[in-house]
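agent: user wants the full assembly modeled, not chains individually. Plan: 1) parse entity lines 2) check alphabet per entity 3) run joint structure prediction 4) return tokens. Steps 1-2 passed, two entities, 750 residues total. Proceeding.
--- entities ---
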Amino acid sequence: MGYRVLIVDDSKLARMSVGKALDALHPDWVRVEAATAEDAAALLDEVDLVLLDFNMPGKDGLEFAAELRGLHPDMPVAIISANHQVEIVNRAGAVGAAFLPKPLTAQALAGFLDDAAERLKAAGL
Amino acid sequence: MNEFIEQFLIEARELVEQGVGDLLALESHPDDRGRLDSAFRAFHTLKGAAGIIDFAAMARALHVAEDALESVRSGARPLTPRLVGDGLNALDQVLQWLDRIEAAGEPPTDAEPQADAVIARFGAPPAEEPGGGPSADAPPVAAVAEAAPLEQRVLDAQIRMLLTAGPDGLAGRLRSAALVAERALLRLGRPGAAVGRALALALDAGDPTPLVDALRTGPAEDAALPAAAADAPVVRALRVDVERVDALVRLTGEITVVKTALGHLADTIAAGADSRQIGAALKAQNAILDRLVGDLQHAVLGIRVLPLRQVFQRFPRLVRELGVQLGKPVRLVTEGDDTEADKAIVDSLFEPLLHVLRNAVDHGVEDEAGRRAAGKPAIGLITLRGARQGDQVVIEIEDDGRGIDVDRVRRAAAERGIASRDALADLSDAAVIDLVFAPGFSTAAAVSDVSGRGVGMDAVRTAVERMGGRAVLESRPGSGTVARLILPFTVMMTRVMTVKAGAQLFGIPFDSIVETVRVAPDRVVAIGAARAVVIRDTTLPLVNLAETLGGPSVGGDPSRPDATVVVARISGQLVGLEVDGLGERLDVMLKQIGGLLSGLHGVSGATLLGDGQVLLVLDLPDLLR
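--- prediction returned ---
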């Protein structure tokens, strides 16, 4: 059965774009959307993995990923950002999140999703 | 248009607005970290959005802008007014792209040169001191030029070329510039003869100045241009809320039901049914149809409605640049951006608003020394405000400048022969201020590059009246000027009540009618030559409509001596209008009267009645002035 994916981005256009790529790869997976880290926090118990925009007003993607890690140590998380700065890539790694460059390519997303699915399966989900 | 483009347009317009607001705030508070982060995010998200819809040119241009802001965030470079200007320039280019995408449904494919121009500004060496005047390679008309039609930009390019090129090959350049300029002027509907003369002068003198001057005075001579521009067919797509389309679909269905019912009634008439029953059924169907047509009109108007933001959002940047050119720091605040107005009006507002704002910066706001002397804050404040008031949309442009010098207007009007000195002496201050709208009027002591020779308050009034509105000025000496554009919310429907005056029917705008009453003769009193009527303890002036319109009043039913009075509110005052009969309430499409009857006193427009008769709709304030 399909996993539930939470897409967090303040731009609806960006969520539509990620959602389209996700649908193309895994039409049976369910997508859940949130526009802010605060909204996303309330949805964490309902989802299996998270795709997070780095640049958001309020709490940014990395801050939220760190919090999330405390609550759900094993949940696969990817930070999506157009800032390819080494610093951000490293910080994503430090909180155990994958880094995906923006604009998101189907290939990059597929790599992360396959890896996430394997980890979830291994964890018995 | 696919859903991604639609969403892109929505978000991009919001982000541009956010970015413009942040940049302008940063200019006065360069240390505001929150604003800096927000501006960065706006550019960053815009870039990402451009990437999503595969608009590479826009993404490329914004990437450079984003890098510049990032280097400010990291402390690598300071936030200069120049950088703010470059950022605003980038956002303005984005807005122009958005308009093209909205019209075409897809990103333009020829945007690379424009992206290059945006990027070049970020990369250029800082030739201009922060806050300094315009440099030689930035012609003084630049801010206006970007808002201007292509022809104007062509003219500006010629000026720029003439000013910046060296002395070699001057004659050839002069001829080529003159040729291009003549064509551009022709397309603007203006004769190019002055250009020919200026070219001869410039060739004789071996100096481009006469030609440059001739090209520069172009826009100033041409107060009627905005009206002409408003006439030009502009193809723009309209994005419509799905719910509003659904409402139309639903109404179509309901109207079809009525049509079927009427067909059924026709059959029963053919079968010889009782006429009284038929009458009742017809009346019921007519009532339904009446409601549906009303809803349909409402729904169709709703489709044509746009927020004023569409036209307001370019002005903060333009006003800022006008201020830089004139060496007057000014700030534009917009209010009521969400106010909705008919698309036709929103689309025609840019030029008149630009004129008014330009005048506010040039003539309204004092220079720095003047403001200091008056004890005002150094930065002039101009407020652009939109609000819905009943059936009208009111747009105010308010500055905190010196107000209008009434005596100077009087003197200038006399000098220019707009009215005689005696007539001017009798005019109230308000009436004198209104002369600013007279064609060709200007009180600018020095002709400036920005406003030219009194550009356009008459053009503003013309443009506003074309939209069925009014333009008025209000001055508070020493503390500012308010220009008020009062526009109809819709250009389509006006609710009128028909009344009989003499033998003819006239329409009175419904929203000016307070009540209709029958008045016994003994309640009408003569006051000198005029008459008044007492209605519920209030005494109102009473005017016979037929006589005011220049015809004889036939009077009502002779067996009933009571007068029929329409109580109307005219410019805040109640007036009783004695009519010869009351008609019905109608929603009409008001048309401006053209041809021989244009300029008819006291008439705001005409409409066709169901029987083909023309109904003149009265403009009561004008009629009773």
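agent: reporting back. Chain A has one domain: 4-51+63-122. Chain A has a mean pLDDT of 88.
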